[in-house]
Amino acid sequence: xxxxxxxxxxxxxxxxxxxxxxxxxxxxxxxxxxxxxxxxxxxxxxxxxxxxxxxxxxxxxxxxxxxxxxxxxxxxxxxxxxxxxxxxxxxxxxxxxxxxxxxxxxxxxxxxxxxxxxxxxxxxxxxxxxxxxxxxxxxxxxxxxxxxxxxxxxxxxxxxxxxxxxxxxxxxxxxxxxxxxxxxxxxxxxxxxxxxxxxxxxxxxxxxxxxxxxxxxxxxxxxxxxxxxxxxxxxxxxxxxxxxxxxxxxxxxxxxxxxxxxxxxxxxxxxxxxxxxxxxxxxxxxxxxxxxxxxxxxxxxxxxxxxxxxxxxxxxxxx
Length: 319
What we know:
The chain is α+β, with helices and mostly antiparallel strands. The chain contains eight helices and 13 strands.
């Protein structure tokens, strides 16, 4: 163990010496460029993730992960505890009467995908129990897929009356369980993953690939390399404003041709598995974006829905 720490210290000292020399001979911008290049390398992320549990996804700000498995009527809740996930809660739930992914209003289906918990309702019809947690269905990907409907909640059950053993699309728990859930999570730091069946644990290989791809995408964006930038977008891409891939390409071409200096900082990255019925290895990525040029500035959330194909990130839609 002692020898291990000595080796680590030597490696750190060597890297520090290299960076000092780079700064001395080529200046601070060269140091920044070197560090940004490291973030595009899968080897860096492999090392970074070595002792981290990413089985439920990769989270820098999300703390609670709710996983609902529809075929077994099961809800599990995990808390991200430093570098691992701790199971806090597991209970039986009621889900939509009909199986499969929700597509239209009134189809009695619970959605499949990954959603935020956006608010909590306490003053509601007694049929829904003491508390309801409102989900973000339909999300951006649902809307692009022309899915509709609304009012998908996690809620309780009637206190003094019977009800069916299914819902119209919501997720229902016993009232004692919904109260327990409410006490154990912070709504603003939670996400809900809904799958038709048991989805595979997320691999470090996939998370490492995605993190390096995110920074390669950012690099091509910052350097206005249009061809390389567009390689990260699927041909079926549709933006949140309805812009298709061809329109998006022409739009970005106009912007990139200006050759403006860009400042792009990505932080608070969360990478969530996205169960789906299309046999795609999908993820939802949400992060903070600080973007600045001489004529435009944006500081807010960036959301990507991506498919991972042959270790390449393909963006299906974004906001």
